[in-house]
Amino acid sequence: MIISSTTDYRAAAQKRLPPFLFHYIDGGAYAEKTLARNVDDLADVALRQRVLKDMSQLDTSIELFGEKLALPVALSPVGLTGMYARRGEVQAATAADAKGIPFTMSSVSVCPIEEVAPKLGRPMWFQLYVLKDRGFMKNALERAQAAGVSTLVFTVDMPVPGARYRDAHSGMSGPNAAMRRYLQSVTHPQWALDVGLLGRPHTLGNISTYLSKNVSLEDYMGYLGANFDPSISWKDLEWIRDFWKGPMVIKGILDPEDAKDAVRFGADGIIVSNHGGRQLDGVLSSARALPAIADAVKGQIKILADSGIRNGLDIVRMLALGADCTMIGRAYIYALAAEGGAGVTNLLNLLEKEMRVAMTLTSVKNVAEITGDLLVREG
Ligand SMILES: Cc1cc2nc3c(=O)[nH]c(=O)nc-3n(C[C@H](O)[C@H](O)[C@H](O)COP(=O)(O)O)c2cc1C
């Protein structure tokens, strides 16, 4: 199979993964309108082509929260990454590390913090959900701090899980789910051997460590359903801000008023995100939400953005719309599922190449020069 883009990696991932996993990654909430808009709205952003300015020297690096990033990109937190490739969090994190960008571990990863962090040359980022089980949250923060995690990504757009119809149909949840998953696994032998057999244990590593018992995939939906906390408000975040010593970034901001609240709260950054279209369907794409948020808070807080980025040109578009840095979810997960860590490395190299082409043809020599001036203003 010829691989030249995220689209190719998506197709390769679909071949390799049992359907319950592929659709868990690929799907979104309800009619998946926002999922589609994330990609389409970004692809519709037109940049001004500029030429003949000697673009032989380009710098794609940025400084963020005291860290140097080789690209204005970090890997978004993705739950169950160790189910898509053998010990997938380790493979994705080491690929990101080698490229010089941060990996963000999800709270609901397969590998625990302690399995991944020591293998990296740079500090990992860690994502925390607001869970009713505050004991877990405190324990996770203490362990993250002990493991040298630099940045805390606090996800706030999941006080309740979104309705994802594909999961019920695919066997991720719904009737006879365990039996359906088993049957799908044995008909996908490459995955069954690499991950099903050699990638064990299949537990939620961080939660299992905390509870001192294995929390399996079978328990995953139940645990999350029972533990998401709809009562959460800014007030509840204060103890975390006081407890956590490093930068704290709020993930799941889509409205300028919430962005201003994040500034008032004292967060170091926000991530403009709709969770990749997996939560409230019909909300604005990140690409469309971003400019108003940037107008409201740019310069007062670091603005990161994800949801819909599929190539290096999209990274430049998101920066031109107002982000200081971007994050990617499905793009690297498809590559990981298809080819493991080597796939993530290749994907990151592709993103860099595409970013360089976009920078060359818009005549920007470094990331600071990627501003709203690059946007074609219609009319
Ligand atoms: C399979 C999957 C699992 C995810 N799990 C988490 C998670 O555990 N925590 C979190 O904050 N976001 C999670 N997300 C959302 C991503 O962090 C990110 O916001 C989203 O994937 C960005 O959109 P993109 O996939 O279009 O790049 C998940 C996304 C996917 C696709």
TrEMBL record:
Residue positions binding FMN: 77-79, 106, 127, 155, 251, 273, 306-330
Main location: membrane
UniProt cofactor(s): FMN
Domain FMN hydroxy acid dehydrogenase: 1-379
Pfam families: FMN_dh
Compartments in which it is found: Cell membrane
Function: Catalyzes the conversion of L-lactate to pyruvate. Is coupled to the respiratory chain.
Family annotation (HAMAP family): L_lact_dehydr (MF_01559)
This protein's name: L-lactate dehydrogenase
Source organism of this protein record: Comamonas kerstersii
